[in-house]
Structure to design on (244 residues):
């Protein structure tokens, strides 16, 4: 998804390009939405306020919508172009950033935050989590997803001296690893590092799950799905945490 901590000019131009891929596939979005729906429960007479922070073109919100019926989902992004595209999937969109109180919401006003494949793009993830914690109510839910540095195939690639999948050394091309798409990843996490980072940032990790990656070659996709049984080796990390 598009980043929301106002990247430098070169990165801004990169992320504004609609040709840049913004998600790892519907399987991840659907699993994440199910986790959030289970956490929130039915909307009933008290719908939750859910922020899709770094909503990009609204793809994750579109996938999650049937599972979050009755709840209010608000898309947030720094990119006006992304918000324009997101309006086709979201009724409410607002421009916001993830530094220095840049989200245009009152403290403690959100019940949940979807943070789908944003953190790996951020220059300053510490300030970003501080801002997410500010807008979440105590006990509010954070649903975060990000590529896994320790994915099962990355472990083998590193042993062979090959650059891990998801990691990038340039915005102009792929060097030293499989794949052809440059997506602007600045940071990568293992399950252990992500747990420790979230805990240090004022969240309690409830669950870590795994999701497959659509970019895995077709002959290996069954193995990729099987790896989700052990989230620390899955392609994509899905984390449910609550604000303490």
């Amino acid at each position: 998804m598009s980043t929301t901590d106002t990247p430098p000019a070169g990165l801004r131009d990169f992320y504004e390009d609609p040709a840049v891929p913004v998600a790892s596939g519907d399987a991840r979005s659907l699993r994440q939405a199910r986790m959030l729906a289970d956490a929130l429960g039915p909307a009933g007479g008290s719908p939750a306020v859910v922020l899709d922070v770094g909503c990009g073109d609204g793809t994750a919100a579109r996938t999650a919508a049937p599972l979050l019926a009755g709840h209010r989902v608000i898309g947030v992004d720094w990119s006006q172009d992304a918000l324009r595209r997101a309006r086709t999937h979201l009724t409410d969109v607002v421009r916001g950033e993830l530094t220095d109180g840049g989200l245009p919401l009152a403290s403690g006003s959100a019940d949940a935050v979807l943070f789908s494949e944003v953190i790996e793009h951020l220059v300053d993830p510490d300030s970003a989590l501080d801002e997410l914690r500010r807008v979440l109510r105590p006990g509010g839910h954070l649903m975060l997803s990000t590529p896994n540095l320790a994915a099962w195939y990355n472990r083998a690639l590193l042993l062979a001296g090959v650059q891990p999948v998801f990691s990038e050394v340039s915005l102009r091309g792929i060097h030293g690893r499989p794949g052809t798409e440059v997506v602007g990843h600045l940071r990568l996490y293992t399950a252990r590092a992500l747990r420790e980072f979230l805990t240090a940032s004022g969240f309690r990790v409830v669950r870590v799950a795994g999701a497959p990656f659509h970019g895995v070659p077709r002959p290996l996709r069954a193995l990729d799905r099987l790896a989700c049984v052990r989230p620390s080796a899955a392609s994509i990390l899905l984390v449910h945490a609550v604000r303490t």
Q: What stands out?
A: DSSP finds eight helices and seven strands in the chain. The mean pLDDT is 90.
